[in-house]
Write a structure and sequence with these properties.
By secondary structure, the protein is an all-alpha fold. It has helices spanning 10-28, 33-41, 44-57, 89-106, 111-115, 120-146, 159-171, 174-184, 191-213, 216-223, 228-243, 250-281, 298-313, 326-343, 354-378, 382-393, 399-406, 411-439, and strands spanning 64-66, 84-86.
Length: 444
């Protein structure tokens, strides 16, 4: 159980996160020799992610905590379980700012040029999926050699059942994770440990990818990568932006914000209406244990509809708002999301369940090794490596963050791959679960 942090108010914590972002951007653009050397080693995006996680680890801020009474004792509900309080910052960032950012960064995209990137993005994404499917059973086999009790268990306490939810999350997203919990009926009282592994390992991996972005030129040389198509797309979008660039007025800002957040409202409306309509026509969609349950997930439809609206806008005069900084405004919202995700990473939690964390780290290593091997073979740029991986592991909430750091025009690649991940997530996770059941030690 976790005691309340120093700051428990949403508005106060939001202010702290914004101060962190301001500090990072100020120092990263400083001419000071120390900061220049520092950000040569540690990318600024990684700092925007790590600083909130350090504050969370020190319990200065926290996304959630257990409520205590005036005497300092934890407050329990009628079932004698601790009552939890949580901040709403991440929910606002992922449900309001993320779809707005996706629309702002997609409205100027050239879909023809996007498809001109070739098939390497899809190959690396599917390689990441296969890495998750194979990584689970391999991790179970490795850990069973020196700690069989960590990956053992019987009946609904069998650890492989819990690990199946990680496979759902790391191929698709939250809906797929819930589907796996329903399908394999893992003991709910032990499920919290799996959520912890998901958060810790996925966030460590995201930190590694963000660090790698700062070294992307060296990594591309290692892969002998051909960046021609990516550079052409970036240049085409940049040239278009420059050709229509003008000083925005208050009217421009109000119109673009009105259009974008109006579209966000439509995407949220659709995220309610579409699942209800699908469930009415196809009742199995509403069954959480169904392989079609992804299509009843509101977040999936919110992201899908928001992205589709952005693509539609790219064929209308709204596209010209890129000349007034639409993608830069989208990047601002993305960085707020980065800080809110970083706050969810409590570094001290790594020690709370070391056995399962080791399983997760081995699992993620298999995912990474397979990506490296295939990336080397097909000479894939690090962009495809990073986004293909994060579209699996992080989903629609973090794939555009990684893609945006390469260039705002590339954020759509991350989103489209993440949506595909949602669709195939449950199917891939079921295959992984079957393999983990075979690999798990019997009778322990």
């Amino acid at each position: 159980m976790k005691h309340p942090p120093v700051f428990t108010e949403d508005f106060v914590v939001f202010g702290i996160l914004m101060l962190i972002l301001g500090f990072v951007f100020y120092t990263s653009s400083s001419s000071n020799t120390f900061w220049k050397k520092f950000y040569t080693v540690i990318p600024s995006l990684l700092m925007c992610y790590l600083l909130p996680s350090i504050l969370s680890s020190l319990n200065i801020i926290s996304p959630e905590w257990n409520v205590v009474d005036s005497t300092g004792n934890f407050v329990m509900d009628e079932n004698m379980k601790p009552i939890t309080a949580k901040l709403s910052i991440y929910k606002v960032a992922s449900r309001l700012l993320l779809p707005a950012a996706l629309i702002l960064m997609t409205l100027s995209i050239d879909m023809k040029a996007l498809f001109g990137l070739g098939n390497k993005a899809l190959i690396m994404f599917l390689t990441g999926t296969v890495g998750v499917i194979l990584g689970g059973p391999i991790a179970v086999l490795v850990v069973s050699v020196f700690s069989p009790e960590t990956v053992g268990g019987a009946g609904f306490d069998a650890v492989w059942r819990g690990l199946s939810t990680l496979a759902g999350s790391w191929i698709g997203g939250g809906a797929n994770q819930t589907a796996m919990l329903e399908i394999y009926q893992y003991n709910q009282e032990k499920y919290g440990a799996m959520v912890l592994v998901d958060i810790v390992v996925a966030n460590i991996w995201m930190a590694i990818l963000l660090y790698g972005i700062g070294k992307k030129e060296a990594i591309d040389r290692f892969f002998n990568a051909d960046n021609t198509a990516i550079e052409k797309l970036k240049e085409k979008v940049s040239s278009f932006s420059a050709s229509i660039s003008r000083m925005p007025t208050l009217k421009d800002y109000m119109i673009i914000l009105g259009v974008v957040f109006g579209a966000v409202g439509v995407s949220h409306w659709a995220s309610v209406v579409i699942p209800e309509a699908l469930v009415a026509v196809f009742p199995s969609v509403g069954n959480k244990s169904s392989m079609l349950s992804t299509f009843s997930d509101g977040f999936f439809w919110m992201i899908t509809v928001a992205t589709a609206i952005g693509i539609v806008f790219s064929y209308t005069p709204i596209k010209n708002y890129e000349g007034m900084g639409a993608s830069k405004l989208g990047s601002v919202l993305i960085y707020i999301l980065v800080a809110s995700i970083g706050m969810r990473m409590d570094l001290s939690s790594v020690l709370s369940n070391p056995g399962l964390i080791v399983v997760g780290l081995i699992w993620m290593s298999i995912h990474a090794i397979l990506l490296i091997v295939v990336g080397k073979i097909i000479k894939a740029p690090f962009f495809f490596f990073a986004v293909g991986s994060q579209a699996n592991i992080g989903g629609a909430a973090s794939a555009p963050i990684v893609a945006n750091e390469f260039h705002p025009s590339l954020a759509s690649v991350g989103v489209l791959l993440a949506i595909f991940g949602y669709i195939i997530g449950t199917y891939g996770a079921i295959i992984c679960a079957m393999l983990m059941e075979i690999a798990a030690p019997a009778g322990i």
